[in-house]
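Possible regression after last week's pipeline update?

I re-ran a chain I had predicted before the update to compare outputs. Posting the input and the new output here so someone can diff against the archived version. Not blocking, just want to make sure nothing changed silently.
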Amino acid sequence: MAPSAAERIVIENCAIATVDAGDTEYASGHLVLAGNRIESVGAGKAPEGLENVVRRVDATGHLATPGLVNTHHHFYQWITRGLATDHNLFDWLVALYPTWARIDEQMTYAAARGSLAMMARGGVTTAMDHHYVYPHGSGDLSGSIIRAAAETGVRFTLARGSMDRSEKDGGLPPDFAVETLEGALAATEETVRTHHDTSFDAMTQVAVAPCSPFSVSTELMREGAELARRLGVRLHTHGSETVEEEKFCHELFGMGPTDYFESTGWLGEDVWMAHCVHMTDSDIAAFARTKTGVAHCPSSNARLAAGIARVPDMLKAGVPVGLGVDGTASNESGELHTELRNALLINRLGAHREAALNARQALRLGTHGGAQVLGRAEQIGSLEPGKLADLVLWKMDTLAHASIADPVTALVLGAAAPVTASFVNGRQIVRNGRLLTVDEDAIAVATRAEAQRLARVTAQA
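New output (post-update):
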């Protein structure tokens, strides 16, 4: 729809953090949404004489930011939260794989709805899910996840994962939890051809995403990269998460994770890796040289005692970095806006101390950085004319934040701010902290029931 004919929403009297290239901010400004695009953003009141204005929002006391962009998650883990709470990554995986290997379509759909609802009501407008567990006979898991995202109303990337290295091959997953090399590649290609949308305002995209070096054969890594580039989609996997993974790669491949990824075609501007905690100077240089992206997951890294990622060094080198919730079996809150705060605080425990990150850098990680990592920085991640109308109004005049003069500092370092409104593609999906698109209470009931059913199925097995 042409902007001149589009229905307009006018938002006025709010502080605005655009997160554009110059970090432009307005103490009191306006936004005009025309259809699914941002038509104008600036200081003061909106322009006079606008046609087709269907709604005016007085956003006094609010901060407007781009919608948050989640770059790494495992939705199915919503129904296995609170388990193996004192484990490192490898022990945690061994403890939970027998349960995860028994998920089915109904469980996956319920878990996806729970994960998506929790993120969306907290300011996430673009989500992703790295789903890699496809038990035999479990139904259309990818389709159920995409359906849940569409119902929630968020922009979505499905990273269609896979595993073909099971216990019998020296991997961690049970033998019955993995696919064959051929089966994984064929199913991934079918998912891309069925669901991937290349349009500017795409609501659903698909990436090729073998799980990790210790659950995937070298053949699947190499052929997965070839498949992604033949289909013109992005690539995603886990990388350099723990010291155990580093040891595994050296023992099995005779090299560290980054060198292994490069040998299999897995470095490039169309690739992003989750975690990247244990990176040497040469690893960071390789990521910077190839523009390989990173999904930083501070809460999950702390929960699994993986370590502190070198985010300040990555940013200085020019590595694209976004934020990720990670699966809710290692980040039980399931919220991305808390990762803004945790990214800043945890990185200040590292070598750079108080100079590691500031509040605006943290906000950029969660918005524009995430858009870069997902390959969508031209469409989302900042509030600029012509970009898609994905934005959040955070209420900053309550007891929790009203005495903090700088709204961006209040958002990042203060308590989790209430979301008064969240727009995706110009459509409001959250009002006063509640979802408008789905029934949160019904989702809570369904996820509890499916968590209990999965526990029973696992116990019986």
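Follow-up from reviewer: compared with the archived run. The chain has a mean pLDDT of 96. Marking as no regression found.
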